Amino acid sequence: MTTSNGGRLAAVVYEAGFPIDEFLGRVAGQLRAEHVRLGGALQENAPGGDSRCAAMSLVDIATRKRFQISQDLGSQAEGCRLDAQGIAEFVVLFDRASQDNVELLILNRFGKAEAEGGGLRPAFARAMEAGIPVLTAVRAPYAEAWAQFHGHLASDLPTDIDAVLAWCHDSVRPSRAARPAQLSPAG
Questions:
Q1: pLDDT of residue 184
Q2: DSSP assignment of 65-127
Q3: Rg (CA), the chain
Q4: Inter-axis angle of helices 84-96 and 121-130, to 10 degrees?
Q5: Which tens digits make up the pLDDT trace of 94-138?
Q6: pTM for the complete prediction?
Q7: Which of 10, 71, 80, 152 sits a CA distance of 20 to 30 A from 47?
Q8: For residue 19, pLDDT beyond 80
Q9: Strands 66-68 vs 56-60: parallel, antiparallel or unpaired
Q10: What is each CA distance from 113 to 6, 48, 86, 104, 168, in whole angstroms?
Q11: Could you count the other beta carbons within 10 Å of the beta carbon of residue 116?
């Protein structure tokens, strides 16, 4: 289901198994090539490993700094364990960083931690308060919590790179129109 309300908040709605981290990385790469000033974080998972849960990191888009966000629970673990400390470290640095030059914020996903009131939720809220467009991703188990969080202010986007880039371009247009004389540095 795709809805568009012209807002400055959107989520790519995806199913389990879809390579959302790579998809958002491609979106960010294309926007950087177009000199869109990006902020936020993308998730990267360590390749390989014998366990069911790869080591996960948040990568700050602007600085490329990595924040470990998973705990190694050992080979007998049935699933992943999110490490809230890594997320908290990112949010603190995000709060300290000047968002004045950011045209678009990409936050890797609105997932279980955000649905429960934690995770990157403060970063979402602060960006919305600052009027910075936010792109994220959400899976069906968290769609209801996502809808409650944004109160019907967000657009749902398909897993189509052209549709996502079109939303991004529409979202940054107002900030670019306000600063027509400035050249945008590569992000």
A1: 46
A2: -EEE-EE---TT-SS-EE-HHHHHHHHHHHHHS--TT-SEEEES---HHHHTT-TTHHHHHHH
A3: 16
A4: 20
A5: 655 555 578 999 998 898 888 988 888 888 888 888 888 999 999
A6: 0.78
A7: 10
A8: yes
A9: antiparallel
A10: 27, 25, 13, 22, 25
A11: 11
